[in-house]
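Quarterly update, task 2.4: pyridoxal-5'-phosphate-bound model.
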Amino acid sequence: MNALEKKIALSFKVKNALFTGSGTTALYLSFLYLKRLGKNKILIPSMVCPQITCAAIKAGCEVIFCDVNLKNYTLDFKSLIEIYKKQKIDCIVLVHIYGHFCDEKIIDFAKKHSIFLLEDCAQTYKVNKKCDLSILSFGHTKFLENRQWGGGIVSNKLSLNFLKKENKKLPLKENFLQKYDEYRHKYYSLDKNSPKYYENLKNLLLEHTFFFKSKENPLIFKRLKELDKICKNRKKNLKIYESILKHKFIKKPILSKDCIPWRYTFRLLNNREFILEELRKANIDCSSWYIPNHLIFSRQNLKNAELLNKEIVNLWLNISTKKIRQNCFFMLQLLNSLNC
Ligand SMILES: Cc1ncc(COP(=O)(O)O)c(C=O)c1O
């Protein structure tokens, strides 16, 4: 391990670490490793960042989508069992989406049935050592975002030698920001009303999923020193949203006490598009991520993910307390003005 990898291993209290070009690259290398072991049936919760699915497809794996729960929007245990009864699962991607921790029952289940656990900690920064591999992201919007981005793979159990070798074979990151801007431009130009919307989105996503070799990144040393402070601040800001945003249309997630959130994410049961539009007009950062992956990449019905697709709202946690309070009161005022 180089100095940065040693620092990452120490920060996340794990034995082995590999610094990668991005979180997506970390996922891709992990899927290549699984493929080499003949474990290519990968279960992914549908409501996640599509780069996870793209990395699995590009590594030549078969993707199985699973529904999410309505409690905290992570992988739904019951849906997982239903799938397991019908088909083989080699690996579960345990995505702590929005920083919400997945149900520990899934980990016990995977252990019992010898299913590989690939943990995706891109949106939180706590690694569960029971997982086989865990991936990190230091990229755009993440806790430790920095100009050079980057990602990581950590493990307490496995040697990362194969992944290191594969990492070296990847190309260097070139014109990445330009490619990223191109992608964003094309993404926002897609016609959402076209019957081919999901097909076009799938093609665009696959075309713009890149993997590259890691380079030195001195910025992360500095960011890692701030990790505790950043996590504490996010937890504090979450409490502010929770205490102010109370309305009959707002359904909060049920979160574990140790949750280190990425956004303040909740369900808005009515008028979501109108509220999002008004928030944006008032320059308040918000999003409705994520589009369920099964809609983009396969043709199934996963009812919770589809419901959440119409209800999820994300508000930013890395802003001042004052701004959070102002934004909350603005949103409550909007909701109260709806009169329904
Ligand atoms: C849950 C999750 N996993 C993986 C990634 C990919 O990370 P990166 O942006 O560093 O490639 C993202 C990116 O947004 C993500 O949200």
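Highlight for this quarter: The pocket of pyridoxal-5'-phosphate is lined by residues 22-24, 48-49, 51-52, 95, 120, 122-123, 137, 139-140, 151 (CB under 6 Å).
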